[in-house]
Design goal:
heterodimer, A: mainly alpha, about 70% helix, about 0% strand, B: mainly alpha, two-stranded antiparallel ribbon, globular, transport (chain A), membrane (chain A), transmembrane (chain A)
Chain lengths: ~80, ~280
Amino acid sequence: MAFTLYSLLQASLLIVNAVAVLHEERFLRHVGWGSDQGIGGFGEEPGIKAQLTNLIRSIRTVMRGKGTIFSIIMMMIIIVIT
Amino acid sequence: MDPAAPPPKRRGPARLADPRPLFEDTSATGASPGRGFGAPPPSASSASSSSSAAASAAFGPPGAFLAEPVTSLAAAYGSSLASHVEGNLGRWVPVSRLKYYFAVDTVYVGRKLRLLVFPFGHPDWQVRYQQDTPVAPRFDVNAPDLYIPAMAFLTYILLAGLALGTQNRFSPDSLGLVASSALAWLLLEVLSVLLSLYLVTVSTDLTPIDLLAFAGYKYVGMIVGLVAGLLLGRAGYYVALSWCCLSIFVFMIRTLRLKLLSEAAAEGVLGPILGGLNGILMGIF
């Protein structure tokens, strides 16, 4: 099966990088998942869509800083070693 | 005499002054930091009988290495390393919390195993609390523990190696591959459950270690399936596997329904998802 811890690390890194690179304006707005498009009001249960939107936004915020450098280094390591 | 040959094991005091080209003769002075593994025995061997000299010839009298300065240096370095690792480990893994999960006894293990394979007919699935902390697994059969998942995980890896061996597909690397693969699936399962719990916003007191314990319980079913497959062939494997899928399904639903404190949990929204995931993962293996 060859599903090792290393492949898990690779896959997670690539997914996180994809979420970080995702351009909100061009793609998520049309689907209605933009983070400033008024999801739910106060006191209501957020729901899955709002949670996902918040998750995407927070991943992007975290990765924009030191996360970028970290992921660049990790990607170079992954690409160089197979 | 050939200078490249190892020295005779038994040497009298007359030999002590003989210059050896390969290494220093340290028998006269006793201990010395320059000794390697093949060093000649210290002077004590010359006084002992032949059998004990032959027995201790390779390593000197038992415990002689403890008197050397190198050993004390190594011991000091080792203890400093251990304390450093322990200090770092205490920051990342809550060690005192882990001890709770290993407080099991034989009766608990027996009852829990019976529950895992046959969860029907158990009347009460509520974990008993004692002043807001869960009771140790030794006193309550419903509490999660880490002993059974850890043992089941290791047993499953060994059994998988055995099963591969009976099919002539075994090699030592394959054992490591199975171990790594199983660990990766376990990690993926725990992470996906954590992600699902976050997305559905249920309020629960399930810690990640609890989820690790519940994810590890399915290995018991997989072991039962593997043993049945080894003993009874293909049909036995599928029958045992489907039975264990069903029992893990029921076990998870009944245990986790009480742990997830929200209406969604009461409806059993998340329970079947987790139970089904467990069943699928068991089937994949």
